[in-house]
Design a protein that fits this description.
There is one protein chain. The protein has a single domain, classed as Aminopeptidase, CATH 3.40.630.30. Helix content is about 25%, strand content about 35%. The longest helix is centred in the first third of the chain and has 18 residues. The protein is globular, with a radius of gyration of 14 Å. Pfam families: Acetyltransf_1. Keywords: Acyltransferase, Transferase. This is Acetyltransferase (GNAT) family protein.
């Protein structure tokens, strides 16, 4: 199985297909969702990065990291196509995002945080098994549908 992960623009065609799939899935799970579009400037060095994962040259997953506050990065727009879940792609994207977040030439973060939906048990399992600990919600108005996690990385 050949999986490659590389930086990409969130407005590229492959990224847009994955972000739209993420949006659709969130609508199905919760009845609402953040916009499918990503703010390109937030995912452009030195403020962040957006990654695409490919399986046999087919885009199958994505994720972004952005500066949240001084010394803190935030994971956003993590998604792996349902037919590829359980194959380790999400774990690889997350590990690469952590490296970018800690890189002093990029964000230089000491902590990384994220929020995910309470019904997304696979994502919660990934984050918990990757060393993320539960924290209070940091996005106003989302405590009913989201859980927050944070990890020390530096």
């Amino acid at each position: 199985m050949t999986i490659t992960i590389e930086p990409a623009s969130p407005d590229s065609a492959p990224a847009q297909r994955l972000l739209q799939a993420l949006h659709t899935e969130q609508i199905e799970l919760y009845g609402h969702a953040d916009p499918a579009e990503a703010v390109i400037a937030e995912f452009t060095p030195p403020h962040g990065v957006f990654l695409l994962a490919y399986f046999e040259k087919e885009p199958v997953g994505c994720g972004g990291i952005r500066t949240f506050a001084r010394g803190v990065a935030e994971v956003r727009k993590m998604f792996v196509r349902p037919d590829q879940r359980g194959s380790g792609i999400g774990r690889r994207i997350l590990a690469d995002l952590e490296k970018f977040a800690a890189d002093p030439e990029l964000i230089g973060a000491k902590r990384i945080r994220l929020e995910t939906g309470i019904r997304n048990t696979s994502a919660i399992g990934l984050y918990d098994s990757s060393g993320y600990a539960a924290i209070d919600s940091y996005v106003p108005g989302r405590t009913e549908v989201n859980v927050a996690r944070e990890k020390q990385i530096g």
